[in-house]
Amino acid sequence: MMRLCAGYRMTGGGSRAFVAASEAWVFLALRAPAVFACAVCVTGGAGDPSADAYGWSVLFLMAAPYAVAGSVAAWLIYRYRRAALEDRAPEQAEPAGVK
Amino acid sequence: MTMARSSAARRLDDAAPAIERRRPGFGGGDLPPVVPNRAVVSNASLAVAMFIAAEVMFFAGLIGAFLVFRLGSPVWPPPFQPRLPLGVTGVNTLVLLLSAVTMDASVRRMRAGAVREALRALSLTAILGGAFLLIQGYEWFRLIHFGLTVSSSVYGGLFYTLIGFHAAHVLGALVWLFAVLAHAKRGKLSKTRHASLATCRMYWTFVVALWPVLYVLVYLN
Fold it and tell me: Quick one: which of A58, B170, B171, B192 is 20 to 30 A from B98 by CA?
């Protein structure tokens, strides 16, 4: 039995498996060859067109979800405001829930 | 029978039922009636908006990939590659933009109760969308003839992926539009019930609004 943290105990089989997995992980980590730091670090030099291209692409993709969520929110706000205006002038209102 | 009616699920385009309830006021007398807020956006419209948001992210991924290759290349388009037809595609862009105008007119006419005029505008939209796809197809046929294929270069691969996916979306929107047309021809659309037309307009506007972005990125850059 091995006590890992307060309130949690491992059974004998679980403990052996945990130790074996840890040893395997340490062994593989030591045996691993040198790796690049980042999957998109294609170049190292500043001002390189490829690095700039990756940078702009990443920035674009980072901004896209905010732009999408902002557009949907703006549309909903517009619909609510228009509905409020229609409630003030009900005779000109279009049927609710059509659009 | 009454219970079955009251427990029946609402349709996607149904507005929330306005139930007027009166609460007993403190010390007798009635308080003003409690009227629930009406839905300002139908469930169908909200679903299509979320779908369009996902589509925007899909195209953002494709545009991101395009930017990597476009900005990373010192010379663009790459040498020994056929040039894209700017003039014909420019006219095609106008055709697609015009289809958005007719689609908008169709919804406006439907809201005004002019169903036949709305159908006419919708048919015109279908014709313009079909014309866009036909011109696009002819353009592709010529480009393939000149040697620009999906595997000829990164340029060809990017071109056919971006423009091809957009064309597939226009085709999908056209199928949707024909389904709405068939629905309307059977007399299922009216001034008060036209959620299918309104949602189709949303999607059509999306594919039309996307095209100028792709045209500027792929053709004019």
Answer: B192
